[in-house]
Amino acid sequence: CSENCKIQELNLRSNLISHDSIMKFAAKIPLMKSLRRLYLSYNTFLREIYKLEGREQSASLRPLLKSAKESKSLELLSMKCKIDAPELRHTMNVNRGGRRGIEVDSATSCISLVLWPRILH
Asked: Which of 20, 65, 96, 116 has the most CB atoms less than 10 A away?
């Protein structure tokens, strides 16, 4: 792989990752600028979360959700679990829809500022 190679898909399924470990990893997700798909199914942290009740489950996933929201590239976060996370699904849908193009930063924008009036019209 050349030095221009960037990881777009990371499969961490079935790795016995604990809740503490996945939360440490979650903090790094926004720094992974090219990561589009992340697979976390069948890990220990999901079994730990299943044991919790409704609000505790949501609170337990909050750091992961926060990192997913901060990532502009992540389009799929697969956990294949029984935990209902509509906010996470919404975030991934927004990213797939092109949030990267909407969040304009004049230094790094992929869309020129002069085009926005036409786009929004």
From this structure: 65
Compute the distance between CA of residue 74 and CA of residue 8 in angstroms, rounded to an integer.
9
- Could you tell me how far CA 103 lies from the centroid of its own chain? 16
DSSP 15: S
> Which residue, among 105, 111, 52, 43, has the nearest Cα to 62 in the 3D structure?
52
CA separation, residue 120 to residues 62, 107, 114 (Å): 33, 20, 11
Segment 102-109 long-range contacts (CB within 8 Å, at least 24 positions apart): 103/72
**Beta carbons of 42 and 14 less than 8 angstroms apart:** yes
In order of 1, 23, 30, 50, 64, the CA distances from 57 in angstroms are 39, 14, 22, 7, 12
Question: What is the pLDDT confidence band of residue 77, given thresholds at 50, 70 and 90?
Answer: confident
For residues 32 and 91, give the distance between their C-alpha atoms in angstroms, rounded to a whole number.
16
State the pLDDT at residue 23. 93
